[in-house]
Amino acid sequence: MSVLDLGVPAVPGSATATTDTSGRPDDARLVDSWGRVATDLRVSLTDRCNLRCTYCMPAEGLEWMPSEEALTDEEVVRLVRVAVERLGVQEIRFTGGEPLLRKGLEDIVAATAALTPRPEMSVTTNALGLTRRAAGLAAAGLDRVNASLDTLRRDRFAEITRRDRLDDVLTGLRAAREHGLDPIKINTVLMPGLNDDEAPDLLAWALEEGYELRIIEQMPLDAGHSWQRDRMITAEQILASLRTRFTLSDDPAERGGAPAERFLVDGWTGHDGTPAKVGVIASVTRPFCGNCDRTRLTADGQVRNCLFSQTENDLRRFLRGGGSDEEIADAWRVAMWGKKPGHGIDEPGFLQPDRPMSAIGG
């Protein structure tokens, strides 16, 4: 099998990425033609979710991926191992859908923790399952948790998620903290006329609890393709709202490839005694593509070199077709070499990816 034969796309209508590696340096890492190096791997473990957030999927859910198309636990671990040992990946984020729906998550985490060099590991979750699984995940080696929470009001939570589970989320977050899965970061999406007045309340709550709030601009990744830029709460609006109650200053720490632009919250300290921070992830109005260090793996083994990419490269066929680790690594390198300089949301020809966020992974 040629390492340049990268397979067919898993999603109808998507395309296979370019195989042109002209000018690529002799570098074992995941470099692209714009000088960036991917060291942060987002691994989607499932496209399924036990919430139905209005900005993500319809009330009835989506047509889930057939189980035979999804990677097995062993296949996930093999790709993670190749990424760490051969491609220089240093950080692993397990995502979904809802990754806590993956029965083998603890085994995957433990196998990843045993790699050399050991990568930093986190999970992005809705926190519903953390009460019963936080202890096991901590014991397996998980380092920390990112949790999605858009409101502190029960009625709004039920409206946004179509489930009355706010208490379960809050209990799950406390369990994660009790088992040392911190710093715990809270991911919030603000929507006009729904929860856009809650930014100061959410920050006050996060500060009291010792969590770090990160407010995210809504992105064009909904299943219904109904996103409209003029209906989005922007970073400028988010910061103006926060500053009605808090004094914020720029974080002097180097941002690097981090998606969140962070601000110090005057008068508050974080869980570790350092100045408390709040983050804003402004993928649309303040894109940070120039410093992006991420590579993404879908639950069915497709590499995406950008969250908004229209193309994918199939690694699953190497796993199931007898390919070697080095063939997998070479195919992954080719996939990342073709990464574009930016996501292109502001370009006239921008098209939303076929896969919604739940099927890509956060």
Please tag this protein with its features.
two-stranded antiparallel sheet, about 350 residues, single chain
Mean pLDDT: 87
* Secondary-structure class: alpha/beta
Number of helices: 10
Query: How far is the N terminus from the C terminus?
Result: 31 Å
Helix content: 25-40%
Give the SSE string: EEEEHEHEHEHHEHEHEEEEEEHHH
Secondary structure: elements and pairs:
Elements: E1 15-16, E2 30-31, E3 37-38, E4 40-44, H1 73-87, E5 91-95, H2 105-113, E6 120-125, H3 130-140, E7 144-148, H4 154-161, H5 166-178, E8 185-189, H6 199-209, E9 212-216, H7 235-242, E10 248-250, E11 261-269, E12 275-281, E13 294-297, E14 302-304, E15 311-314, H8 316-320, H9 325-337, H10 357-360
Parallel strand pairs: 1-15, 4-5, 4-13, 5-6, 6-7, 7-8, 8-9, 9-12
Antiparallel strand pairs: 2-3, 10-11, 11-12, 13-14, 14-15
Helix pairs in contact: 1-2, 1-9, 2-3, 3-5
Describe this structure in words.
With 362 residues, the protein is α/β, with parallel strands linked by helices. Helices cover 27% and strands 19% of the residues. It contains ten helices and 15 strands. The protein has helices spanning 73-87, 105-113, 130-140, 154-161, 166-178, 199-209, 235-242, 316-320, 325-337, 357-360; strands at residues 15-16, 30-31, 37-38, 40-44, 91-95, 120-125, 144-148, 185-189, 212-216, 248-250, 261-269, 275-281, 294-297, 302-304, 311-314. It has a 13-stranded mixed β-sheet. The longest helix has 15 residues, at 73-87. The protein is globular. Residues 1-15 have low confidence and may be disordered.
